[in-house]
Write a structure and sequence with these properties.
- By secondary structure, the protein is mainly alpha-helical.
- Helix content is about 65%, strand content about 5%.
Length: about 325
């Protein structure tokens, strides 16, 4: 029977979005002083300074550890929520100095190919910060030492947190944002599925290492993880823009996911067959190429299959 360690050990981490520096303190303080009073501006000075410093740290501090980057983003997001009414007011004031937020697509190496620039859009800012919180948490999870029980537990918690941030992005923060593809609803949902699948895989590994699952429970667990990867793979392949986006970023991602899916499908079938009579063995149809296929070949077959599926679907619709 296969061993879980034969499964490719790599876990996929999401890249963070990049942004251009912007001064938040001066235009917001000026707006409060002009619209209300100088005394009101003095009352909010400390909040505006903290807001500005948090964003500057987020953009310019390259020496922060991943947990410190996460904490900085959380602090900045809380500050954003505190001053959100100011952004609502400044957006409707033609005389106020505009604040332009610029964010780049996380999956484009060349900035000019994926940039979103919006004036006074705290919605874009909040969506991008939530994206980066999910990305940083996924990087924390991928960096954990998964050879130990504590490391696997920390990695699982990190990927669950990442999945939750991308879920919030998908269901709440990206809804009213017109931005780059990485902030679209479907792409956010895909990243949520990716982090959820990897968290479920880590949960399974933890159970196997603690030997607290019997063959029947183990079979169900492998099937559950395989279903998570299957939903993820189908979601990517049915969304050709997302497929092309990921391929342009890292061609090995789709191959890697196909290998994960194949491994867990085969493992679930083998464990199920060890506890069922032969006549009751389930038939598992693999949707991807075998593990020993060349990576380029697997990717080409996956993309071809996606194109074919889309063409057939459109034919039926017509």
């Amino acid at each position: 029977m296969s061993n879980v360690n034969q499964n490719p050990e790599r876990l996929l981490a999401i890249p963070v979005k990049k942004t251009d520096p912007v001064d938040l303190y001066r235009p917001l303080r000026k707006f409060v002083a002009t619209k209300y009073s100088e005394s009101d501006a003095q009352k909010v000075e400390s909040v505006l300074e903290t807001l500005n410093n948090c964003r500057r740290d987020m953009v310019e501090r390259g020496d922060l550890s991943l947990p410190m980057q996460r904490d900085c983003l959380i602090h900045y997001f809380k500050c954003l929520c505190m001053v959100e009414p100011l952004f609502t007011a400044i957006s409707s004031d033609a005389d106020a100095d505009p604040i332009t937020f610029v964010w780049y697509d996380a999956f484009f190496s060349e900035h000019e190919n994926g940039v979103s620039s919006q004036r006074n859009s705290i919605q874009l800012e909040k969506a991008a910060v939530i994206f980066n919180l999910g990305a940083i948490c996924s990087q924390i999870g991928a960096s954990c030492d998964r050879t130990t029980s504590l490391g696997r537990h920390l990695a699982m918690d990190a990927f669950n947190a990442a999945a939750n941030f991308f879920y919030k992005l998908w269901t709440v923060f990206a809804k009213d944002v017109s931005a780059t593809l990485d902030l679209s609803l479907l792409f956010a949902k895909t990243l949520h599925r990716l982090c959820s699948a990897q968290a479920s895989e880590l949960n399974l590994q933890q159970g196997l290492h603690h030997n607290n699952t019997n063959d029947d429970a183990s079979s169900v667990s492998f099937k559950s993880v395989s279903q998570n990867y299957q939903m993820l793979t189908v979601m990517i392949l049915r969304n050709l823009p997302a497929t092309e986006h990921i391929l342009s970023f890292d061609r090995t991602w789709i191959t890697h996911l196909s290998q994960k899916l194949t491994f867990f499908q085969v493992e679930a079938r083998q464990r199920k067959s060890s506890i069922l009579p032969k006549s009751n063995q389930p038939v598992v149809i693999s949707l991807v190429s075998p593990l020993d296929d060349d990576a380029e070949t697997v990717t080409e077959k996956l993309v071809t299959a996606a194109c074919t599926t889309t063409a057939v679907t459109r034919g039926h619709e017509n």
